[in-house]
Amino acid sequence: MDDASPRRLEEEPAVTSESRANQSDLRPSDLPDPNDLPELRIFSRSTIFFWWPVWLTGYILAAITYFWGETLSVSNGTNILVHPNTGLGITFIVVLSLIMMFTNVRLRGIYSVVGLLVIALVTVLFAWLGWWDSIFRIIPQLTVYMNFGFYVTFSTLLLVIWALRFFFFDRLVFWRVRPGQLTEEHMIGGGEQSYDTRGMLFEQRANDFFRHTVGLGSADLLLITTGARKEEIDIPNVLFAKQKIRTMQRLIAIKPEEALAKTQA
Asked: Whose C-alpha in 47, 137, 201, 256 is 20 to 30 A from the C-alpha of 108?
């Protein structure tokens, strides 16, 4: 989970008029530590996150090649480990091509479902009619073989890039939601922008079925601020988007003075 919440949100008694009156006499030293306030951190993920099926497929095919492959010798005396079934290489190419297409072309809502169904229908129809064999026979050199070294090398390099992006680079900029305040924070440079959450509108954009499935319930969030600084803030590729929205609703509903009273309770 991307949430880093220093304090769980719990049901607590409402703030009384007496406690509100006492807040007018508060000194700066009486104010709570901001780190004690309930908060939600929202990270925008890059599209490289959706590439995990590629390196996972590569490792699976590498394991199949390692245990059931055959050792071949080339003219320079090098031995390579290759699986005799060309379906492994074609499977890897298909997975790689689909990920490349769906991470660069957005089909929202019903269009994404229709797109996937059309691809699946064409694939199954060609297989049922036996057209794939005919297509492959048109070009004899179309046979695809990938050795064990290719699967391991390619998948490892992609995994390293994926991990660096997911665990480090995507966390350099994030959005912090607290009662009464939304802040864009930068880990490097220390810059930040703050917005008042009173009257803020937010919505989840229509889901891209592929990204929502492969991306652990990811979706794009749109935040619309009010007041003197009215802006539309687009946060793409937020994991577990529905849970984030529910938590944001609870945080925005809490007034700052109520959060202050709770931290002093």
From this structure: 201
